[in-house]
Amino acid sequence: MSLKFEYSVHIADSPFWAFAIHDGHQIDPAVEQFMLLDETQRLREEDPYTASMAELGVNQLVVGTSRFQLDINRKEEDAVYIRPEQAWGLTVWDSLPSTILKKCHDEYKNFYQNVDRYIHQTIDQHGFFVVFDVHTYNAQRISEKQSIDKPANPQINLGTHYNREKWRLVIDRFLDSVRSQQLLGEAIDIRENIKFKGGYLAQHILQKFGERGCVLSIEFRKDFMNEWTGLPYQPVILEYKQLLLHALKDLQKLDIYGV
Q1: Rounded Cα gap, residues 47 and 182, in angstroms
Q2: How far is CA 37 from CA 33, 43, 68, in A?
Q3: Helices marked H in 156-199 — which ranges?
Q4: Listed residue (227, 79, 42) closest to 153, CA to CA
Q5: What stretches of the chain show up as alpha helix (H) in DSSP?
Q6: Which among 198, 158, 246 is positioned nearest to 74, based on CA atoms?
Q7: Is the dihedral of CA 183, 188, 190, 195 positive or negative?
Q8: pLDDT in tens, the chain (259 residues)
Q9: What value, to the nearest 5°, has the Cα angle with vertex 225 and ends 222 and 228?
Q10: Which distant-in-sequence residues (6+ apart) come within 8 Å of 216 by Cβ?
């Protein structure tokens, strides 16, 4: 039995990467029969439209398979949501066969081997790397009528916790670039490590290659969509993409190789 874990990689002549690893919504037909969640339930915890935001003209890695089949931003033992506490209290599977579970873990290992190879090649070619790791998060957990607690939920949470101190200049330039912009005519609230510090993929890359590069885990509050229905607000999505393009240009002006 084959099992598809789909992702696409676009290689550019750049030390920069844009990841959208939770954008995916696809479930392999071989496992769909065992899944208890419908599309709406899955979409709520996925990061839709991040692939569009990550179209930045640099190296790109976009995952097409849903995190509910295999979440490569978790440690391997948590990458398949077997228990409800791994999945926001949701029961994901109805007796998932061990053969499928093994294939998921094989796909996980293969993915990480490939990511290591991509980052290693970037370092060999450019001397360093910078990853824009694009995610989103929910701020209306009770209902879509719930008012957002803005002091506790910044518009943009920048996860930087696992980077080495030598990359502080890069982090600060990103923060300054975003703060110099506006979103729909208003100042942008971006803060570090409030909701998330960076996921496991970022930790893995930084543990192995952190001396030669950094990962900026960029979590957009789902202001660009109705997080309960999935309805997108296209003008906001476009502004977030422009925000990232502007920040990328600012970072490209830095002498990062000399850091």
Answers
A1: 22
A2: 10, 10, 9
A3: 168-179
A4: 227
A5: 29-32, 39-45, 50-53, 98-126, 168-179, 200-209, 234-252
A6: 198
A7: negative
A8: 578 899 999 999 999 999 999 999 999 999 999 999 999 999 999 999 999 999 999 999 999 999 999 999 999 999 999 999 999 999 999 989 999 999 999 999 999 999 999 999 999 999 999 999 999 999 988 888 888 999 999 999 999 999 999 999 999 999 999 999 998 888 999 999 999 999 999 999 999 999 999 999 999 999 999 999 989 999 999 999 999 999 999 999 988 866 7
A9: 85
A10: 130, 131, 132, 133, 158, 159, 160, 170, 171, 174
Alpha-carbon distance 259 to 257, whole Å?
6
Q: Which CATH architecture has domain 7-258?
A: 3-Layer(aba) Sandwich (3.40)
> Tokens at residue 116, please?
């290591």
8-state DSSP, 258: G
Dihedral, CA of residue 216, residue 178, residue 250 and residue 13, to nearest 10: 40
Q: What token pair was written down for 119? A: 């980052």
Instruction: At 80, list the tokens.
Output: 């398949």
Tokens coding 187: 């100042």
Task: Give the β-pairing of 129-137 and 16-20.
Answer: parallel
Length of the chain: 259
Is pTM beyond 0.70 here? yes
* Separation CA 4–CA 229 (nearest Å): 27
